Amino acid sequence: TGCSLPNAWVSKQRKEKRPKSTLWDLDVQPLISSSQWLQRHGLKRNKLSLSQILSQIGFQHREDYVSTLGKFVASRYADGLFPQYLRAQDGRVYNLTAKKELILHFVDCLTGTIELYKQRMEWVTSESRQIFGVILESCITIVLDFGTVCRTEYDLCRDALSMVLSQQVTQLAKFNLIRTAQDLVKWQQKAVPVSEYSVESAVKWLWKLDHMPPISSTSSTEALLEAISDKTVEAVYYFTVGDFPKDMKQLLLQKVSNSPYPIHTVSFNAKEEETILFLKELSQLTSGRFHAFAERTDYTDIIGPIPKSEEDGESLATQNSRKLKGKVPLVAGVREDVFLIWKELEEARNALIQLQNILSESDQPISGKGIVYSSFQKDIIVFMIHLFHLWAILINCQLKDDFSF
User: Fold this and answer.
1) Is residue 403, in this structure, part of any structural domain at all?
2) Cα distance between residue 139 and residue 227, in whole Å
3) What is the pLDDT of residue 215?
4) For 167-210, how does the pLDDT look when each residue is reduced to its tens digit (9 = 90+)?
5) Which of 332, 353, 388 is where one domain is finished?
6) pLDDT tens, residue by residue, 95-119
7) Under 8 Å CB-to-CB from 24, ≥6 apart: which residues?
8) Do 142 and 251 belong to one domain?
9) d(CA 185, CA 93)
10) Most distant CA pair in the chain: distance in Å?
11) Can you tell me the distance from the alpha carbon of 241 to that of 266, in angstroms, rounded to the nearest whole number?
12) How many CA atoms are closer than 13 Å to the CA of 71, on its beta-carbon side?
């Protein structure tokens, strides 16, 4: 039948709202792009597009060109034999030959697929992914540009970065952190291998950074140049908070637009539209991606750098995500990775509606002859089809003889 269900699709809890304490299914959370994810779980890959399903539960009603009549004529051999389905998109008619059980099987497949897509969309747009997106590279450097934020927002930024380290960086191969300042602050000289110890060390280093070190107009540019000088990294993530002067923008474009590595820009609470547009431009010039997060709320109970133990029932990332409530600024546009999943989700929903309509319009029994025919009956139908085509050929030849002189 072409339907292969991953674990998430057959879970008994798939229709229930998942508690926050429940772990994401393994099929939902790979650190890959949405296009790559859909290559594994897309409708066509699993033979679940509407056209693929229709070809598995029936066959297209033929329409051939009759030269003597000078027009297309629909065949009549199946009239009354099969229930028919008309595709509104292209006007094609399908004769339905499958048992109702098979159609119900595809309904179940699509229901599970829709739940999987909804989970992926929720995962992509929650916790650390709502800020950084999905980190696709295995070796990265994150440049931290906190600007002149207040103490409360500074702590919120470190909450966000702690969550990125614990949720995504732990799955990479190498990483490094660089903080913009008049005197550059580097966690390590070069990117180092990821381990439980190195990630914990990076989080502690992050929370020991001074709130307002001296900065200059060239601090951001120098930090990015230092990051791209590390030949071991595959990409640089530029995490910038708030807005910055126009002279800094021009200098950044001059110095780093020809970066050998993608520079993915991450805007955190920018207030000016020009800042977001500039960061989008910078990422595009370096073949990078752009993400933006704004409208933060809830500064209460700021979490320190040390995660809570497993016995406490909640991780640092879970608590931090509760404080990081916001959304993508309108000027930032729709995230491509989210749009691709949404588009596939809508196609799956439409296919499900069409199958449900087919079931509701069918008054055939679930088993027995119903709307499916035995092999003997199918042989008769095939014979009738060949006989019809032979008859059409003979009539065509006869007409030619009658009008020949």
Assistant:
1) no
2) 12
3) 81
4) 999 999 999 999 999 889 999 999 999 999 999 999 999 999 99
5) 332
6) 777 678 888 999 999 999 999 999 9
7) 119, 123
8) yes
9) 67
10) 103
11) 8
12) 3
Cα 56 from Cα 48, distance rounded (Å): 10
pTM for the structure as a whole: 0.73
Domain range enclosing 321:
138-332
- Does residue 360 lie within any of the structural domains? yes
Work out the pLDDT band at 288, boundaries 50, 70, 90: very high
Strand ranges across the sheet with 93-96? 58-60, 93-96, 84-86
Handedness of CA 41, 43, 45, 46 (dihedral sign): positive
Rounded distance, CA 72 to CA 74, Å?
7
- Cα–Cα dist 3/375, whole Å: 23
Give the count of beta carbons closer than 10 Å to the beta carbon of residue 47: 17
pLDDT (tens digit, 9 = 90+) per residue, 352-368? 998 888 887 765 444 33
Place of tokens 């006869």: 398
Instruction: Say if residue 224 is in the same domain as residue 361.
Output: no
According to DSSP, the residues that pair with 264 across neighbouring strands are 237
Query: Has residue 301 been placed in a domain?
Result: yes
Using the structure block, give the residue that is written with the tokens 């697929």.
113
∠ CA(209), CA(127), CA(130), 5° rounding? Answer: 95
The tens digit of pLDDT for each residue in 296-345 reads: 554 444 334 444 333 443 444 444 544 566 666 666 677 888 999 999 99
Question: Tokens standing for 44?
Answer: 């066509």
Q: Domain check: are 119 and 143 in the same one?
A: no
The span from the CA of 3 to the CA of 47, in Å, is 6
User: Helices in 73-150 by DSSP H: which ranges?
Assistant: 100-124, 129-132
CATH assignment at residue 309: 3.40.50.410
Does residue 155 form part of some domain? Answer: yes
Give, rounded to a whole angstrom, the gap between the first and last alpha carbons of the chain: 56
Q: Where are the alpha helices (DSSP H) in 286-374?
A: 316-323, 336-361
Q: What's the CA angle centered on 182, arms 177 and 186, to 5 degrees?
A: 20
Q: How far is CA 201 from the centre of its chain?
A: 32
